[in-house]
Amino acid sequence: MDAGLDPTGLQRLLLLAIEEDLGSGDITGIATIDPQWLGEAEIRAKQPLVAAGLEILAPFWDLIDPEVKIETPATDGQRLVVGDRLAIVRGRVRSLLAGERICLNLLCHLCGVATLTAAYVEQVGPHRARILDTRKTNPGMRRLEKAAVRAGGGHNHRFGLYDQILIKDNHVDACGGVTAAIRKARLEFPQAPLEIEVRNEEELREALAEQAPVILLDNMDLDRIRRCVEIAAGRAELEVSGGVTLDRIAALAATGIDRISVGALTHSVPAADLHMKLTPNRA
Prior knowledge:
Blueprint: H1 7-22, H2 27-32, E1 38-45, E2 49-50, H3 57-64, E3 69-71, E4 79-80, E5 85-92, H4 93-124, E6 130-132, H5 142-151, E7 165-167, H6 169-175, H7 178-188, E8 194-198, H8 201-209, E9 214-218, H9 222-232, E10 237-241, H10 249-254, E11 259-261, H11 264-267, E12 274-281
Parallel strand pairs: 6-11, 7-8, 8-9, 9-10, 10-11
Antiparallel strand pairs: 1-5, 1-12, 2-4, 3-5
């Protein structure tokens, strides 16, 4: 699994965002700002948060204006309080204003992902469970969002359909059962990481008999999860998903589960509150 950012994909995303917002140019900036005016803008936190997405700043501002200079006092994963600086951007005022909204849109979202992830991780407490993301990401944003999950202390699940076999209930039904599905998958892709979803104890025992390394318990209540943990007895990593909310994490982790996957980390995360304050130098 390649957890790094893809420079080509990142540039494609940034160019799309720039085209969408700037179009043929910032007519307000052109109308009101002298092209030679220089300035400095600070991006600061307006709430406690976990920083993320700072690695996009240099490539983004280089596309807006190659002469813009970036300084990042914060680092991804750093916990910030109100007023802390994430970045300082220096250059032509027109350029700073042209890129302000796109920059904040991306940073607010990614810091929001990291901040929410950190809240989930904190709720695990002393237990061994790891918080994982899912494929429920925004189109084109997956690698950035998954990097933000890591910044918040979480872990990445598969990046796509290509890097891990995850046999869900529909696959099981189509194949005629857990055993058949696992055997067919291993025959086709023997080296691929494998996980299978089970719906009851009988399917769990089948998956254990086939030595499935990771078993997903989908939408089970706490009593059923505890029973499955007892049955597995450490022979496979057990993951829970479905209906996972922040207020349930402590109880889920206390069952002895190994992994908790949370779609909300990326698909419905609130944006962090940041602002970019410009100080122009019209001399």
